[in-house]
């Protein structure tokens, strides 16, 4: 004949099933959760709760409450439980609390040990790698955004420097053709403006590289080439104006 505790458990399970049949699924689940927390060693209560979740299609919760019963959970339920443990960042020290198990039961259940050593460890590593990738993308986007203004300013500066050189060259040629005596002086003003614009552009390009944390040898080479081209253009323009 069943003892008082077994009769009590049977009545609570029966009450939960009545609630579920009446459409009160939440009440049925909460009733059994409360009873499992009061009686964590009761496999009957765990199976009843896990069966409710299985019937509702919640494989992760079916695995959570049924994993302590050896051989009861399906491979899909164990996989979903492993995902749940990894995504919730439940540590090995918190497994007993999360699964509502009495002390020492985790080590005594081969299904749980195999789950932690296999799928849970795999998903933890996978989710950690995904989080690192997301963080890297966020940092990259942030640095790109920080350097975008400097890059735009550098482009504008170089554009104005080139335009100034071209228009200045044309102006000096026209001035010389019409015999303006002060054309060399005008040319020097144009040179000064070009140097200032080119210097500003190089400064902005350097600031963009620093902001984006991409100051590499290639960036330095491009800056040096730009500087040499600018100086060469200015020198040629100066020679033309002086002639």
From TrEMBL:
Transmembrane segments: 156-180, 186-210, 222-241
Record's keyword terms, sorted: Membrane, Transmembrane, Transmembrane helix
Pfam families in the record: DUF6584
Keyword Transmembrane: yes
The name this protein goes by in its record: Tetratricopeptide repeat protein
Organism: Mycetocola zhujimingii
